[in-house]
Specification:
Blueprint (H helix, E strand, L loop, with lengths): L4 E4 L7 H13 L1 E2 L8 E2 L3 E4 L5 H6 L5 H7 L16 H16 L5 E2 L1 H9 L5 H15 L4 E2 L6 H6 L8 H21 L4 H8 L3 H10 L15
Parallel strand pairs: 1-4, 5-6
Antiparallel strand pairs: 2-3
Helix pairs in contact: 1-3, 4-6, 8-9, 9-10
Length: 227
């Protein structure tokens, strides 16, 4: 990192001993590597991030005040996702692109209904929770679009007014997915790879879907001979 930028995430979680070591790096521009016996000079720019209120942590004795003032040169406050709902659709599109490549499936669109639910939800876990929700929807969804029923139950139950969707509706959606998977496996004579092709899913995504739906993992690996 010599001459570059060092990003420290969740700096508010550092133990007291690590806080002292970081302070030394910032003050004296040197450190001792693990297993080393001599100090090494380090010319780096440090960017630190945290979701904690470091001023309160300093007052409570959980964070060194001298380290806090060393870090607190320029402060950029990122508001929580619930305070910038206009960013949710853009972030969701980015995560869909990322997850589609990761799962090796065609990129899906976000249905207007699903997008509205995402915007209404308060996202206590912020961007990480949104990313996990999109990954789940990409993996479990069987349509070309991400639909409301593909979203986590927390989003469905507490988005907007907090009125839960009808349990019978959610149960019917889950049962419909089970039927689609079972039918695909029957058409493919139990071969996962062929069934995944029928559903337009990556085989690994189909296996995860089977587990999430609570279906018995009765199937054959690979493709049918000659396919």
């Amino acid at each position: 990192a010599e001459g570059g930028t060092l990003f420290l995430d969740e700096v508010g979680e550092l133990a007291a001993g690590m806080q002292a070591k970081l302070l030394r790096v910032l003050q004296e521009r040197e450190f001792e590597p693990v297993g080393g016996t001599r100090s090494i000079k380090a010319d780096v720019r440090v960017i630190a991030a945290t979701n904690r209120n470091l001023q309160e942590a300093v007052q409570g004795g959980r964070f060194r005040d001298d380290l806090y003032y060393r870090l607190n040169v320029v402060t950029v406050t990122t508001p929580p996702l619930r305070e910038r709902r206009e960013d949710i659709a853009v972030l969701a599109e980015n995560f869909m692109e990322k997850m589609s490549q990761k799962c090796k499936v065609a990129k899906k669109k976000l249905s207007p209904q699903a997008q509205e639910l995402l915007k209404q939800y308060d996202w206590p876990g912020n961007v990480r929770e949104l990313e996990n929700a999109i990954e789940r929807a990409v993996v479990l969804g069987v349509a070309a679009e991400i639909l409301p029923e593909d979203l986590p139950e927390a989003v469905l139950e507490y988005a907007g007014t907090g009125t839960p969707l009808d349990a019978k509706f959610l149960g019917a959606v889950k049962e419909n997915k089970k039927q689609l998977v079972v039918q695909a496996l029957e058409q493919a004579n139990g071969y996962y790879v062929d069934a995944a092709k029928i559903l337009g899913l990556h085989p690994n995504s189909l296996l995860r879907l089977i587990r999430n739906l609570g279906l018995k993992s009765a199937g054959k690996s690979g493709s049918a001979p000659g396919s």
